[in-house]
Task: structure prediction
Amino acid sequence: MTPRRAAAGNGQASRPWIDGLITSGLPRDHFPAEGADPDTVCDVLTEELLLDGNSKQNLATFCQTWESPQVHRLMDLAIDKNLIDKDEYPQTTEIEQRCIALLADLWHAPGQPTGCSTVGSSEAAMLGGMAAKWRWRARQKAAGKPTDQPNMVCGSVQICWKKFARYWDIEMREVEMKPGRLCLEPEDVLAQVDDNTIFVVPTLGVTYHGLYEDVAGIAAALDGLQQKTGLDVPIHVDAASGGFVAPFTDPDHAAWDFRLPRVKSINASGHKFGLAPLGVGWVLWREPADLPDDLVFHVSYLGGDMPTFQINFSRPAGQVIAQYFDFVRLGRAGYTTIHEESHAVARWCAGEIGGLDGFEIVHDGDPKRGIPTVVWTLDEGAAKPYTLYDLADRLRMRGWQVPAYPFTGELAGNAFQRILVKRDFNREMADLLLRDIRQAVAYLEARPAGQGGAAAQGGYSHL
Ligand SMILES: Cc1ncc(COP(=O)(O)O)c(C=O)c1O
Result:
């Protein structure tokens, strides 16, 4: 019997207040003995969730905050489908395989499409990293060399790689930033790699500033090293954001994908610039030989065999179906239009923010250099009576989430600020943000000394 019926059965009208939720609030620390009227619970929860703020103003996140009505329909249709049940939902399995084949085409995989969907780039990074560790270990064993000190070489990576290194016992050789050197450079890589390097991980769209690292340059440097020393170090590209941007908005970009034979695996987030709803990522290998067989589990599938490689078992299927919808609905032309618009809005914002006294643009959203994001700092000589943490705080009062955060290495003491320009951050929204930035800056400039004080570093920056 539903709670609403139970209440009506007691001879009382089903009115929200009979549940007491309105006057006494929702249970917080005890599992409730009785149920409650579902509409009332839903209303009260809806109101509570208003405190989360408005995702459209969340310019910190790389993830999509807009989905089409059709995607809502498809998600609803799939709400009870478990992606792992390959036998029960063979058509969903087929759709997942089609997505992998389409991505293999987009990223120029030479042979049989090999990959899987994941919860996001973090799980994809774990899987790409595990495959690299397994391949390295097999190579070392075959050569009679030790296998107890694996390392990886990277620039300033997103936290998922730090997790990967810690969880899988890998020494992380992270080349941090210096003034004028924000990305991992080929010579840095050469200085760090050795026999124990399981892979090098350049990022296409670094989380801190959105810039593309020079995958082709790094691959060429490693080619040279191999010619000289015989050492063959593979590359995994973290294309969490850029994998769904560069192929569309800068198709002539120097090869960064499987066109480079040294690139053995790539991850990307479907829910970022892949435009799918939250909860889907992808990892692809160059060819089946790059995914060691002993990492793959085989499940029976319509009497056949379906290889699976993932950390989770149960997972919702809707995101994968919605991803396929986006691929088919938009095609290359649609992704190009949407992302070009985001770059145009980013460049508009960069022009305006760069025009503010003392503001220095680090990335202006140029599609040749990186993803559609704008990153800025305060000119060292500007001696402002406020910090970017104060500005972030002030913008928060208008609902905008524009994180301020430090870079790494020699730039760990400097504050930077970033907006991610996504599909629903249009020119109208941009102009409203810019107005609020100007007003906040004017307020902070005029604030009498001693009032307010510098805001502390805090909040969530998705690093
Ligand atoms: C470069 C990079 N890699 C990995 C991740 C983690 O991605 P996800 O949130 O899809 O797990 C992010 C997230 O922002 C990222 O920017």
